[in-house]
Amino acid sequence: MTADDVEETLAGFVRHALELPELGAARTVAAYVSVGSEPGTGALLDVLRERGVRVLLPVLLPDNDLDWAEYAGAEHLAEVAHPGKISLWEPTGPRLGPEAVLTADTVLLPGLAVDGRGVRLGRGGGSYDRVLARLEIAGARPALVVLLYAHEVVERVPRDPHDRAVHAVVTPEGVRRFRPPEC
Fold first, then answer.
1. Dist CA 126 CA 74 (whole Å)
2. Handedness of CA 160, 166, 172, 174 (dihedral sign)
3. Per-residue pLDDT, 122
4. CA-based radius of gyration for the chain
5. Which of 33, 97, 106, 149 is placed for a possible disulfide with 143 were both Cys, Cβ 3.0 to 4.6 Å?
6. Would you say residue 61 has pLDDT above 90?
7. Which pLDDT value is given to residue 1?
8. What angle do CA 97, 100, 103 make, to 5 degrees?
9. How many CB atoms within 10 Å of residue 106?
């Protein structure tokens, strides 16, 4: 997708994401800052924050696990180059620890694709697999939502035993649910 294509989809993502009851009722949302041609999250992060939602953003640790920090606005993000990995925009505020995600009512997950069963295909680093495992071990049941372009919702992706299905995918065209949140 071109930069113009990505820009044109932003309003659709924000509109449809904000229609989700899971985001409307959330007090805390764990999200991420999009990079490259990923669906843009910046406007959504700002709207959530303006609504009084506590937004947590990931900080990549050397072992690919994720720490978390509160989003305080775009001016409090720094581009961090991780050796051998992609550069990410990360919050500059105090680190809250990997367990901070357990406080989230909704977790927005990045992905490359989601299939008809709600199985998410990630980038292969395992960071969000660790997050999902941490949530499951703790008995936390946040709504799990992925932002993707419509062509990234596919019939089937590979599924490993540790993969956890998501509840919904948001595209610029709308929302597709796979199963109700367990909370």
1. 26
2. positive
3. 86
4. 15
5. 106
6. yes
7. 64
8. 170
9. 27
Residues 12, 126: Cα–Cα separation, whole Å: 29
- What residues contact 68, with CB distance under 8 A and at least 6 apart? 30, 56, 57, 58, 59, 95, 96, 97, 98, 100, 101
126-173 pLDDT per residue, tens: 899 999 999 999 999 999 999 999 999 999 988 887 778 899 999 999
Q: Are residues 113 and 121 in contact, defined by beta-carbon separation less than 8 angstroms?
A: yes
**What distance in Å separates the CA atoms of residue 107 and residue 86, rounded to the nearest whole number?**
21
pTM of the model as a whole = 0.91
* Residues composing the chain: 183
SS3 79: strand
pLDDT in tens, 141-154: 999 999 999 999 99
Q: How far apart are CA 31 and CA 144, in angstroms?
A: 10
